[in-house]
Write a structure and sequence with these properties.
This protein is 35% helix and 22% strand. By secondary structure, it is of the alpha/beta class. The protein has a five-stranded parallel beta sheet, with helices on both faces. A five-stranded mixed beta sheet has the order 6-7-10-8-9.
């Protein structure tokens, strides 16, 4: 393997959801960069992958990116993985990929697991055009972002945590109106995978009666 950055998707729940090529490249790489070495260590141990691993996450990427691009320039094959899903999609990866592109270094992203695609496909909402937002701003700018999105004609895809989902739905109810259709998928690929569909009012009532667990993909019908 020559010097290249490999962005490798990892399972979002079910460990079987990894490609044969991903496993081969993780074994052949000179170095694996992981968002959390403890989390990724379980995956690597499961597949008997013994490639050296170092942490690369939102708290150190500004300091570490230059050094890793230098290693790639020197001919090392570096694989980047995150805790779950595809690097760069609401996860670390953009900064390193951008730095490699700017230095004309080879970058390759494998196809694979990501949470929003299956959630979109099973939602029953239009999937031919959509806009992926990821996580909403934590506090400042949250309401203005939702007001902006309320005018969006395409299906809207958001990520949300279980302890914020009810307050987010209440804001959507206020801004989008009760009848806007939404879909919530949680625990995707896991034993308790669940998708809840309906208008905002109906889904909010369900969520208040039965608190949700696990990471959530929230889809909103376009205007």
């Amino acid at each position: 393997m020559s010097g290249k950055l490999y962005l490798i998707p990892t399972p979002i729940g079910n460990l079987e959801d990894i490609t044969l090529r991903a496993l081969r490249l993780l074994k052949e790489a000179d170095l694996i960069l992981a968002e959390d070495t403890r989390t990724s260590g379980k995956l690597l141990k499961h597949y008997d992958i013994q490639t050296p691993m170092q942490p690369y996450h939102m708290f150190n990427e500004h300091q570490k990116t230059e050094g890793y691009t230098q290693q790639i320039a020197e001919g090392r094959a570096v694989a980047l993985i995150t805790d779950a899903g595809t690097p760069g999609i609401s996860d670390p990866g953009y900064m390193l990929a951008k730095a490699c592109v700017e230095k004309n270094l080879a970058v390759e992203c494998l196809p694979g697991a990501t949470a929003f695609v299956p959630a979109l496909v099973v939602s029953g909402l239009p999937s031919h055009e959509f806009v992926f937002i990821g996580f909403l701003p934590p506090k400042k700018g949250r309401q203005s972002k939702l007001k902006e999105l309320s005018q969006e004609s395409r299906t809207i895809i958001l990520y949300e945590s279980p302890h914020k989902i009810n307050s987010t739905l209440e804001q959507i109810l206020e801004i989008f109106g009760e009848e806007r259709r939404i879909s919530i998928s949680r625990e995707l690929t896991k034993m308790y995978e669940e998708t809840i569909r309906g208008n905002v009012g109906e889904v909010l009532k369900i969520c208040k009666e039965k608190p949700l667990k696990g990471e959530i993909v929230l889809l909103i019908e376009g205007k």
